[in-house]
Amino acid sequence: MPESTTAPLYERLVRRLERGPVSFHVPGHQYGRALPDEPFALFRDIMGIDVTELEDTDDLHHPEGVIREAQRLAARCFGSDETFFLVGGSTAGNLAMLLAVLDPGDAIVVQRNAHKSVLSGIALARARAIFVAPQIEPATGIPTVPAAADIEAALDRHPEARAVFLSTPNYYGMHVHLAPYAEIAHRRHVPLLVDEAHGAHFGLHPACPPSAMQSGADAAVQSTHKTLTALTMGAMLHVRRGRLSMDRLRRALSAVQSSSPSFPVLASLDIARAMIDAHGPAWLESGMKAARLLRERLAERGGPFAVIEPVIGEACGAVDPMRVVLRDATGRIGGVRLQRLLAEHDCWAEMADDRHVVLVFGPGTAEAEADKLAGALDRIAAGMAAQFGCPPDAGAGREPAAPAAVAAYAASPEERIGEPFAIPFMPPNEEDTENIPLEEAVGRTAAETVIPYPPGIPLLYTGERISGERIAAIRRLAEAGARFQGASDAGMRRIRVMAHQQREKETNR
């Protein structure tokens, strides 16, 4: 790292360890010395910088020293007025943003396909969500962000809304340019809040789309651990002063973050920023080159596996160059199955739905790793040819079927903007619900939230009317082997619904 680049928090932790301190404080492992070298040597190395709030290590909840300096350097790097380090992932940032702008009874315009943490934040604030249906990217059928015109219409219809909340890029790397949305929100004197968890590298390289902060957002959360080099749970909240109360935001962060934050996670955020400052756009070149190499080799070989190519337009303004989304163009194996086959070759994909596999390339992904992945796909293609009795490229180029979730988010023009909805934080009492077969739930009110994970975007939330389209989406994902959070039946053969509807029908007979 060049001499002009510094990682003050990390360097402070290393210097104090080199002095051979004696610990009479938490954590109890005492710089790892409480554990034997074998078999825990690797873990002991991490414990050497795992400390608590001491006179020289600063306090995340009231930073005055090295944490304050590390956050100041991050704000300069990412183009914000202030940046806050997060040790609870982007979830903590989403919760804090929402608690900072919403009081009980307030309304907020939010895209329907938001992450579950966004719904939790609205529920914790005891506020109401004005859901706006997303656009559907036409080539893939994948939902992105609502049209700017729909956000504007929602604000016109509900002038009491206190903010606009959007999520971009999506899990598939599809990004919608935010400048028009910022202009719409600011014209009505409300802040634009953005869940940019998958875009921590945006704005850092000419090949990447602009970041939310560069596009005029008032606050944006980024999962620095997803596409940069921070440890898992390491994220940053970037804020522009003016439309948010900084005092409320700090209070919210103090409430949702641990009072004993992980210093290794904090130091990793400091290092991630330092690497960007040290190397600039070149820091991302290796991962971008590896992603380009995989795309080129798949195109050259003409096998069954195709890289999805969204149509650049209103629903998708740009595509993340460090994310590759694959599908089997022959339609013979789904995304979850392909993900498992790749794992058998020690190539571990980020996530899968019933049609696609999402591959994330980090700053350090090398050409050799792209080669290994391409080889694994070749062997899987050969296995498919043997199993199905067809050449490896048979059917390649066929138009893909839309993923299961698309019908759950698609809406007619008159249904794209909902009415303010109070999201319950706690589930209803069990005696007020009943557990019924999934196929019998059309028209009933959900008593549980159904969340395919990843990506963590609810297909159903508690209190929502259950449509046939959502049941079909849940069934397709379950049959493909997807995992669900929030559901009482992990296999999704049954679902919990509110019982009062049935009792009302019986009473009215």
Describe it.
There is one protein chain. The chain is of the alpha+beta class. It folds into 3 domains: about 10-280, 3-Layer(aba) Sandwich (Aspartate Aminotransferase, domain 2); about 285-390, Alpha-Beta Complex (Aspartate Aminotransferase, domain 1); about 425-505, Ornithine Decarboxylase, Chain A, domain 4. The chain contains 16 helices and 18 strands. The longest helix is centred in the last third of the chain and has 22 residues, at about 365-390. The protein is globular. The N and C termini lie far apart (about 75 Å).
**Largest sheet data:** 8 strands, mixed
CATH superfamily of the largest domain: Type I PLP-dependent aspartate aminotransferase-like (Major domain)
Overall pLDDT metric: 92
- Return residue spans where pLDDT drops below 50 for at least 5 consecutive residues: 395-399, 502-509
CATH architecture of the largest domain: 3-Layer(aba) Sandwich
Q: Report the portion of residues in β strands.
A: 5-15%
Total separate domains: 3
Provide the structure class: alpha+beta
Shape, please?
globular
CATH class descriptor name of the largest domain: Alpha Beta
Could you give the order of strands across the largest sheet? 1-8-7-6-4-2-3-14
Indicate the CATH topology of the largest domain. Answer: Aspartate Aminotransferase, domain 2
Distance between the termini: 77 Å
Number of strands: 18
The number of helices is 16
